[in-house]
Amino acid sequence: MNSDDHLILEFQAGSQEAFAELFERYRDPLYGFFRRRLENPARAEELTQECFLALLRNVARYEPRAGFRSYLYGIAINLVSADRRKAGREVAKDDAAADPPAHENTEATLWVRDALRRLEEKDREILMLREYEQLSYTEIGGVLRLPVNTVRSRLFRARMALKEQLLPARDEA
Amino acid sequence: MNRSAQHTFEPEEIMAYLDGELEPQRASALAAHLDHCAECRAVSAGLRRVSDQLAAWEVDATPERLSANVLKAARENAFRKSPAAGVRAIKPTLGRFDAVRNWLRPRPWAWALSGAVATVLFLTLTVSVLRYRGDHGIASSHAVGYKTWLETGSGNVPGDGTLGKLEVKKEAKSRAPAPPPITDQRSRVAPDSNGLTHGIGDHAENAFNVDGQASSDQASTFQQAPMIARTAALSIVAKDFAPVENTVKDIVARHHGYIGELNTSSPKDAARNLNATLRIPAPQLDGALAELKQLGRVEQESQSGEEVSKQYTDLVVRLKNSQVTEQRLVEVLRTKTGKVHDILEVEREIARVRGEIEQMESDRRTLKTRVDYATVQLNVNEDFRASLQVAPPSTATRLHNAVVQGYHDVVESLIGFAVWLLAAGPTLLLWAAVLFFPARLGWKRWKHAKAAKISTAGAA
Questions:
Q1: ipTM of this complex
Q2: What is the pTM for the complete model shown?
Q3: Do B201 and B185 touch, CB atoms closer than 8 A?
Q4: Which member of A31, A50, A160 has the closest CB to residue B94?
């Protein structure tokens, strides 16, 4: 099985099969990435598509330095940031479209989302990249341009904070 | 969290162990430690529980149309062999400025091709402009030269174009006064060391007998009138050019002169021109010039006179002395007897003297002709009026000419580019070598700064 870095290099050389394989691997994770960070599922879908299009657009300039996953999620992080800035400028938002599907409104999910929202933004991002995207400390550092030790300490801090938030809530429930 | 001092592992290390981020040796030690340390196991369990609880947040399935859109873009990308070409196919999902960014994205082959085309166009235009300027500059130079020539009689005149065949002339620095009639002025001159007296011009020649003795009535009487070799230049523009040549010949014949040289040119679609060198008897020069001026509008007139009295006098004296010498040698040869060697020596001397006499005689005649016949440089230009071309060149001819012109332009531009490359190439290479490393360093720093900015923005 080819590694991601090998596939992206093949795709850079013109292999469409390599891209299809990469897309197959990261379609769901990327959609989940955007879906957990954006209220609007349609917007999450658009940004997922845009992320892959950005990959297509910039593959010629890809340099295998920090690894493909760091590169891909770096694009995704930037897209989310841009979308949040854009959403901040837009006054009117379609609230109905922003509502998550009913099956996501489970009690556990709501607790998790609420607890994550209370975290400091940087810590939350590190934690989510680790827990949901399964990035290593080094990859997280590559995405967020942070030293590995910083990633580890912040991740620990976020988990401890979340532990204190989640457990009492579950106990109370 | 209170932990006893016996724990050799920090909770953070336990977390790293659970995440698989701990070094192997350290991980093995921690695994062993967890077996008998309940407190550390509690930390580990707490961390696991957090992860488990976070995993409860699941998202809905990825829409199928996402795959269709992206894979379609990828296929178009492969078909167009341009990573961004297919991306444009899905505009609704792109950002506001993505179209502009797509258009400005790096496309090395496109930029290289555009640069090459721009360079060729620039060089072609430059060569054409330079050539046009060169022609215009030459034309201006001609115009200025001709104007100067008209005004001052100095400077070059055009040698081509509608001005026809004009020669370069210089006006006399000061116009010599019209010489008085040669036969009107006479004066006496002193005899030379040989006891001979000399005349000037025709009269000087007549002042001597064949045997070198001064004639009885002219021995002491000679003309002292200055000998002037006169030259004149006329530039005339004639409206009716056809009868000009015949008129000139008639004028010359009427004044008993002759034509030294006569050239006419009749270029197509340009003014006709007559260029002649006329020899007119000096006394009749003014009359001849007056008649020549009737040919048309006088654009330029100049007259000059070179006094050759001293030159002629010296020549005549030397000639006479040589003639006397020759006569004496002939007398010696006839009356004296001697050795053969002496006779031969006298004969050789006679031959040498005769050669000198002939040369001087030729010079005297030439000088005398210059004085007797004034030289008139005549230029007559037609007052040209371009006629309407009734039958324009055919389309085929024009196309052919255009092709030839285009070919010449291409060759000229290539040669110009090659010349420029050879001239500027070493300098460009030098500066490229000098600036390459600083530029690369700057480029890398810029990229790093940009990447850091993107990361910071993403993090924000």
A1: 0.84
A2: 0.41
A3: no
A4: A50
